Amino acid sequence: MILSKLIKNIKALKINGRVDITIDGIYYDSKKTGQNGLFVCVPGFKVDGHVYAAEAVARGAAALIIEKDVQLSGDRAVTLIYVKDAREALALAAAEYFDHPSDKLKMVGVTGTKGKTTTAYLLRSIFETNGEKAGLLGTIKYEFGGETVESKNTTPESLDLQELLLKMVVKKIETCVMEVSSHSLELKRVFGIEFDVAVFTNFTQDHLDFHKTFEAYLAAKLRLFTGLGKNNLKSFPKAAVVNLDDPKAPAFIAASGVRVLTYGLNGGSKADVQAKDIRAGAEELSFTISYKGKEFRVDLQMRGRHNVSNALAAAAAGFALNIHPENIKAGLENLKGVPGRFEVYNTLSGASILIDYAHSPDSLEKLLLSVKDLKPARIITVFGCGGDRDRGKRPLMGRIAAENSDFAVVTSDNPRTEDPSAIIAEIKAGMNGGNYIDIPDRKEAIRTALDMAKKGDIVVIAGKGHEDYQIIGKEKIHFSDKEVAEELLAARGLWKRS
User: Fold this and answer.
1) Is 346 helix (H, G, I), strand (E, B) or coil?
2) Percent of the chain with pLDDT over 90
3) Strands annotated E in 270-377
4) In 46, 345, 384, 442, which residue has its Cα 20 to 30 A from 59's Cα atom?
């Protein structure tokens, strides 16, 4: 593609060099830069892409997008495009390079502190039940047209995202359901994408290590909604789906500027889509959905009272897109479960294991309250907090675990570069008594909890869910809560294979 066409939507401050040259690829990783490439110098968290400009040129870059001057060596002519925001420029260039694939898809974005993944899976099930070919981009993996790609981020970098969307278009995917993280909104990964429906699940404490303040975190989330209806290049009805039970709902409603459909458990007659007669237990999770004076019963295959809200979010998005209630009902009921989300495994001893991704105060509390609905003899909770992340939530999670468990085992999550014992000490500061012990080694912590468990008990292993790794220092090692639990129980002949 000719460089001038590639950058036509970018507001360049100045350009030094030719723009009539051919560009054969876009890059933000200097080590991957190819001949005749456009290298975008993205300021990163730990390193600045401008430092690698010379390496990118040495590998064949013919043009650079930069925010400031760079040091280059050699005599080869390189076009320099100065911009105010390299991340925004990357997103715009990538969209142009891949021919704006999101314009050819129905784009449904799901954001919120918790519930994004389950809501996205439920939505995909609804769309597929409705006869649509649907792709999914999220925390666990990226899936479309029979292809699965490992998920490195909840929302991919803009260049990678546009390439994935093009692959969906090529595979005749009609609808893309996408988890949209606050990081991706702040870092312009979804800049320039026209979303047709935006779904807000909830807003609670998380990611303050990145956003620093609740106000900045909220502002990032709101960007998905302020962008609705700005382009209107597609024929799909634009809508915002908002959880009326959340205190921040008014902010999302005000930001939207398009049709708003609300849902809620506690919103009473004010919510457009409501759940009534909720029955949550070990053997069922059922409720009645009410919308515009009509009602239908839903029996989910999943468990956990908190999943009623996720199902309502998905149903409301379905209503917003005029999907028939029968297909919404069937879509919700067809989903068997989501990896690492309220996964329950029974053992031959009569105890159960429950694995969940809950790693924030709100999600841990909702998880443990949902476990209580299962009427266990005891709740034994294994949990920790990540290192190099928001320290403020550590004592909060300690308090929640102590108050809602019969016994807690405090352990490591992903300690990263922090001392696990120091993290555990901050967790324990909020526990104020209670029955607990601390075991930094996560495998030993799980072993101890399983040794304690008796018939009727539920061992909750929280924090990692679907993840199959643990980050200790700067090393990423293989570690799966499910695999560890299975290994320990199988050694004692107690693992019940499904």
Assistant:
1) strand
2) 85
3) 273-280, 285-291, 294-300, 343-346, 352-356
4) 46
